[in-house]
Amino acid sequence: MAATTALEQGRLATTALDVFATEPLPPDSALWELPNVLLSAHTAGLSVHENERIVTLFCENLRRYLAGEDLLGHILPTRLY
């Protein structure tokens, strides 16, 4: 992994990661031992309200889709968000 090498060599000062090519991050990954790396499960932001919010958003977007309206949370690749 290029990022791991850059971190080990000091070419990259630090990083915070929560998504990996292999999930979960393998126990033998060098990333676990690097002091300049913050690792977090990408489920760290879970909430007891998450499922309710997902269902509410889905239902609203389904209503909008069927009505030909713009969807909420639409990604704009040209703006990189």
UniProtKB/TrEMBL annotation:
Query: Keywords assigned by UniProt?
Result: NAD, Oxidoreductase, Plasmid
Q: Where is the D-isomer specific 2-hydroxyacid dehydrogenase NAD-binding domain?
A: 4-44
| SUPFAM superfamilies from the UniProt entry | NAD(P)-binding Rossmann-fold domains (SSF51735)
Pfam families, sorted: 2-Hacid_dh_C (PF02826)
Q: Which residues cross the membrane?
A: none
Top-level taxon of origin: Bacteria
Any idea what this protein is called? D-isomer specific 2-hydroxyacid dehydrogenase NAD-binding domain-containing protein
Taxonomic placement: Bacteria, Bacillati, Actinomycetota, Actinomycetes, Mycobacteriales
